Amino acid sequence: VSDNHFHHNKENALDIKEANNIVVTGNHFHNFAGSASASGEGIVVHNKAKHVLIGLNRVHDCATGIGNSNVDQLLIVGNLLYDMVSYGTQSGGYPSGGVGIASWSDSAVDVQQVKMYNNTLMRCERFITIPEGVDNEVKNNIMFNRTYADGFDLYIASTAQDSTKVENNLSYSNNGSVSRSFNSTIHTDLNTMPNASGNIATDPLLTLTEGISLGRINTGSGCIDNGADISAELNAFFALLGTPAITADLYGYDRLQGGFFDIGCNEYGGVFIPAVPTSPENVLVNASGDTLEWS
Question: What is the value of pTM for the model shown?
Fold first, then answer.
């Protein structure tokens, strides 16, 4: 599922269930609102889906950007997710929706091996939630400007904390929200969570102007060259799918500019020039009877 534009419809944009070896890349999903009868995900992966890649997509203005439950081996890599909004209140007082990447689970084995790498999440009420599951990884993600003060940048329930790796992410807000993560207690530093290392809390210096460059990191960003090396993990997953590896970021730059991974969906380097189609020149069309020729 590639290079599509899904927007302003009903329950969700893309619903993947009971399917294996699925690749979703280069799409634009937006404006799927939650309600009493619709949960409003941009993308949802569930019901025993296995070996699924969600990569290099733009997802915004939904109740939840990417939701998943009862999955096995899901790779969420290089996506830009922003402006997720809630649509009600749960029984515990937390908003329904408003999450960038959300896992839902009914048992400790329902969510297995969900790998969240190099995503940029901005202006969500909560960024990443992992209520249960085993062997999940959160690496090289930007979580910027959480919009709900009592929400969390990263929520990992105690049943998942011992088998979830949290490495080389950036968590920062300059809108008054304090960085907050949770396992069994509240943390204001990602590195104090179990199995956490290399995380930073500095301004990522993102481009915030709406347009094709939204979410790109800029000169001086702490994201540059501070990501974990996930080459082995990516190569193993693409070999599992039997598809060519993704070697570029959301904006078309090769990964590993300067020899190191950056944090977020953008690999810093060079000058970004959007591809603009050119008009054909010197086209000759000859119409004769039932024959049409051009050169």
Answer: 0.88
